[in-house]
Amino acid sequence: MRILLKTILLTIILLGGCGPAMYESSSNVAARRVVVNQPAARFEMTTQPSQVSSGTTASIAPSGSPAPSGSPATKTSSAFLPAARVNGQEISTERILQVLLRGRGRAVLDNLISLELARQKAAAKGITDFDGIRAAQMNRLLEDMAPGKAEAEKQALLEYLLKSRGLTRQEFGLIIERQGLLRQLVQDQVQIDQALLEKEFQHLYGAKVEIRQLVVSNFRRANQALNRLAEGEDFVQIIREMSEDQLTLAKDGLTGLFSAADEQVPEAVRQAALKMEQINQMSEPIHYQDEMGRDWWCLFRLERIEPAESVDFNQVRPELERSARERQINKRMLQLQQQLQQEARIEIINPIFKPQ
Fold first, then answer.
1. What is the tally of helices (H) and strands (E) in the chain?
2. How far apart are CA 150 and CA 143, in angstroms?
């Protein structure tokens, strides 16, 4: 399968997360809780309000299990063993947990929320083999990344990808299981017709361009970027300082090649880019809205043009069918995830997980 399809799958898996939901806050709660039910155990995180304000943090343990000696059930959180000593000065475990919770806690919570929603939907459909689904999704990912390679090579590539995204194996496991469940829920709904095959043909073999883009959330910032360009500043440096698009920011704004059929690129941007004929040609600020209705302005420079490939449609039809099916499955997975989040009643209760 072509490398473009692998990129789509990896992007969805690695960058998928819990998007906006209907959050409801609770106040005046004696003990603030975030509870996640899992098949093997029910994990409960409890933080007293006084702990949040004083800088101490929560304990995490399987709910219903006996409290170990020195746990917050029998002593205060200061009973944690120190993490280290530096010239006799202790660095507490609580301090580390506080930093982790404030730094990565919300991202992990978002992934747990989206996984819980997928599990609830799957269970309602009689799908309960979560371990098997997670294993199958992991195998699918590894084979797609490095088809035919030894397991050690696949794992090494996966480790590189996780480090490049700043993800731990534990976080990645949450994402993998969620994606596997979503796939299980939608894959039988996908039907491929001639129109989709023709669109896939254009996507894989049609004319493509690559742009270097700066994306900002208001027109004023787009104008600021234009003014800096007019004064002779380097576009790459402006992107590094101003762009709000995390996907392309790490590559100094480069999008990779895309065609007129690539729905991952906003339609207004696609149309403007594919009309350009001169390398290094700059666009005007282009306004578009994302799937959540948020406004964005894109300013880009044409970097590369790749003409359409001369390929016979019928000769590549089997590949088109596989590729189109995978693309539609991924699209429906994202749609289902968004639907579950929009329909759910999600309470972010512990203030440590709320935007600062």
1. 13, 11
2. 10
* Span 44-98, pLDDT tens digits: 333 333 333 333 333 333 333 334 444 444 444 444 688 999 999 999 888 888 8
CATH number of the domain at 207-306, please? Answer: 3.10.50.40
Q: At what angle do helices 235-242 and 219-230 cross, to 10 degrees?
A: 150
- Those residues whose C-beta lies under 8 Å from the C-beta of residue 320, and which sit 6 or more positions away, are 197, 200, 201, 204, 313
Helix/strand/coil for 154: helix
- Three state DSSP letters for 213-246: EEEECCHHHHHHHHHHHHCCCCHHHHHHHHCCCH
**Pick from 311, 304, 238, 240: nearest CA to 276:** 304
* Token pair of 304 as six digits: 């590369």
Mean of per-residue pLDDT scores for the chain: 80
Alpha-carbon distance of 116 to 163, in angstroms, equals 25
Q: What's residue 356's pLDDT?
A: 65
Domain spans in the chain, listed from the N-terminal domain onward: 3-188+346-353, 207-306
